[in-house]
Amino acid sequence: MASKNHSLDSGIAQAAYKEFLTCGFQKASLHKIAENAGVTTGAIYTRYQNKDALFVSLLQGFFKTMEEIFSPAEQEYERARKSARAEDIIRAINVEEGIYFRLLTEHYDDCTLFFSRSDGSSVERMLKELMERKTKQTIDFFTEVYGKAPNEDAIRLLMGSQFWYFRQLLDEHLEENQMFACLRSILDFFNAGWRQLCDTLK
pLDDT tens digits for 151-169? Predict the structure, then answer.
């Protein structure tokens, strides 16, 4: 059995990253990736089972970064859980949103692949599962803090809206200062909603 030529791996990954970033998962072409990498499609299939496996492989480092970068938000939520003060809850939410902004500025292309170019891939399903998990965690958080469950539809709407504005920031290709200004305005809007939710549950 012939051994795999690992010297081709980097070229394939770079060509795939560019193709997926430009075209999105659904429209990306393995033939074009192979052509730009200077390999055959067979060389790609030797390394990846299919297009989806190739796409997922490009985001493995980003997934690890996401796990590590959100620990400060977890600490803020724990503090808010103990105090049960609306101000602390809003602060925790803002810390988390600030981390998303950090992801935007430090890992813009990875964010674009994950949030805006993954339609039709297993990463899209992963993203939907993440949103469902975050929604459940938020509902459980407010239930624990206030002793009664919030309106699940309202939580789902707030969480979904925050996701879509994040995706829109990526699609608009704004400069960093413009993104920050938009984020600040949107946070002010959503903070009013979260504060109203806290007041309702008191």
Answer: 888 888 888 887 888 888 8
Structure-token pair, residue 143: 């239930």
CA distances from 28 to 9, 14, 21, 96, 162 (A): 18, 14, 9, 32, 27
Find the CATH number of the domain harbouring 27: 1.10.10.60
Q: Is 37 exposed, middle or buried (0-12, 13-18, 19+ CB in 10 A)?
A: buried
Q: From 159, 147, 157, 156, select the one nearest 198 (Cα to Cα).
A: 147
- For residues 37 and 8, is the Cβ–Cβ distance under 8 A? yes
Both 92 and 18 in a single domain? no
**Model pTM score:** 0.85
